[in-house]
Amino acid sequence: MKNRMLRSTLVMMLSLAVMTACTTNGGNQPENGQNDPPQPPQPTETNTNTGEVGDEVTLRYAVWDANQANGLRVMADEFEAANAGIKIDIEVVGWSDYWTMLEAGATGGSLPDVFWMHSNEIYRYASNGMLMNLNTYIESSDQVDLSKFPQGIVDIYNFQGNQYGVPKDFDTIGLWYNKTLFDEAGVGYPDESWTWDDLYDAAKALTKDGVYGILAPLHNQEGYYNFVYQNGGTIITDDKQSGYDDPKTIEALEYYVRFVREGLSPEVYGDAERAEAIQNGLAAMGFFGSWNLSGFTANNFMAEHFDVAVLPKQERQASIYNGLAHAIAHNTEHPEEAWTFTEYLGSKEGQERHAELGIAISAYEGAADLWVSSNDTFNVKAFVDMVAYGVIRPYSNTTIVWEDRAYESLRAAFTGDVDVEEAASNAASAMNQILAEE
Amino acid sequence: MAGYKRIRVPRNTWNMWLWGWFLVAPTMLGLLILNIIPIFQTLYLSLFKSGAFGRGNQYVGIGNYERLIADAQVWHAVANTLLYTVLVVPLSVALAMIIAVLLNGKVKGTSIFRTIYFIPMIAAPAAVTMVWRWLYNPQFGLINYVLTQLGLDPVRWTTDPQVGLISISLIGIWSIFGYNMVLLLASLQEIPRDFYEASDIDGASKMQQFFIVTVPLVTPTLFFVFVTTIIQSMQVFDVIYMMIDVTNPAYERTVSLVYLFYNNSFRYMDKGYGSAIVVLLLVLIMIITYFQLKAEKKWVNYM
Fold first, then answer.
1. Which residues face B59 on adjacent strands?
2. Which domains are delineated in chain A?
3. Using CB atoms, which residue from B52, B275, B281 is nearest to A124?
4. Would you call B108 exposed, middle or buried from its count of C-beta atoms within 10 A (0-12, 13-18, 19+)?
5. Could you give all domains of chain B from N- to C-terminal order, each with its CATH number?
6. Above 60 in pLDDT, residue A343?
7. Most exposed among A50, A106, B43, B81, judged by the fewest C-beta atoms under 10 Å?
8. A205: which residues sit within 8 A by CB, 6+ positions away?
9. What pLDDT, on a 0 to 100 scale, did the predictor assign at position A40?
């Protein structure tokens, strides 16, 4: 009797335990298996002013960066004051959960009204009709002028001639350096004249007493991508082929990996470990994007010892840059109000306020200068200077997948198990396989 | 219609039946909605190539399974998962048994110790992992600090492919053994004093008592502990997810099946392939549990 009870308990436990692994999966798949093709963008209703004047409309505005939320709240308050009847509810969800949340929202039909879009994901959302086509709104707007934004960023959010996002900001990658250590070692501070050789020599001179000269982590955007483009190489060609087997790319990777292999850089892999290493004085130089600015400004050690400069050059100057945009859900219940808010965020006035508050580098022409004066701890002008020769972060329809495949291949070069050329060619074939299935 | 006789059910019996169903309904519904339906949905989904946002799924038959068999990473994950189980289960159960026996004796402050050992089970795995990450940190971690103070070489706990899985197993053992210990302790306390007194009179030593009286009498609980710990270990995910990135050199040697399922389903948005991976896990667990139930007859004593 006891035996049978135990058995049945076990069977229950087994099925319970196994299936907890799957529940998260089955949960948000209401219509799987229906072989319906991706639906075209649904025309949005135009009769939104259904006589509900006086009623308050609350817009859900989703963002992933908690550092920017305070400044955005100030902007939202000012917007609410100027636009009676519209309330803005800011939802902050961290980067990786943000996309899980948005995916679930898109599948279940409950997307936020206005939200941030990224180059990695725009294709999936735009091609599946999840975003509102902004063409007519932009054409009839006297506040949003796309020609005032960097063309590269506008293009990211344009899918088949339709604009699905209004640019918000841009980011570039800077060379952060420890002034104190440079002074002690008698090395001149980095500037726009620096070449790869200067960087290498400085790294060598600064590596001593348990401190590494540089931080060269296995990271694409805040790492080797910049060097690939400085050397005239590429990550993805115009006809959607991998650039990892390009001799120029391999040369850049060889230069970059050498820092680790020669002991000038610690072997650092995780994102958290990277920031930790620079903030604890483990390395004298490091590459970090402009979005780290508020975190670094708040860190006493960084504020006291560090400053930032433009990246060095080889064949040419280059820094990877990327920009976010504001997108509106295809099925928002308040398209007019959502547009009014998006329009404000993309207007000259809104973009200048965005810069003044130091939220991020505003994408609007000239507004970036206001952003520069919002921070006097570091030489943040370097970030803006690099836009002139910035290269848009490489992307395609399946960016995340081939980026991970490339990491998987390149790891072995960083640990020294495989030489760079072989690792790069592995990365190229893995990436091409993914690109072929796009 | 012929030969069919209607049975009149007395009103009282009806009432009892209704009450019975009513009382089990919450559990039944929960199981059905959260467990049983998803099992079939997962099986169904594993036959499709996923379209974006749950739309446009294409039927590919066993395509995902063919891909799975040819995917070296999946087999690495199977090996890692099994190795993790082999590392965690025997050690954590043995440790749980030893401590349970010690606590079952006349120790002062038994309940304090019991609480201390049980705490890892209550703490959120994410928080536990954060603490362990600090301990394991190659440059600033406590463990490496102690090692260097002792004149030993620091170990790259989370990035060395040879060590990564061991580091993760240590966390696994530390987290689970307290729970197992409490189960075993409860079972130990059910053993009647008479057996020990009788064996004392017969002149059995403490060691002999442990192997001849204690162990056979806790085998039913031991069996339960083994089966549940194995299943739990096979599903290891959160610790690895929080500690090992795809850029980590130890990734290939630590990635578990559930982690791979997560990456494919939620990172690469390929839910079909992710489902196929989790079905493979289900089959593995079923095979292992089948053999355990077979073996049960050989070594488990029911009083």
1. B48
2. 37-170+323-364 (3.40.190.10), 173-321 (3.40.190.10)
3. B52
4. exposed
5. 71-299 (1.10.3720.10)
6. yes
7. A50
8. A185, A187, A213
9. 41
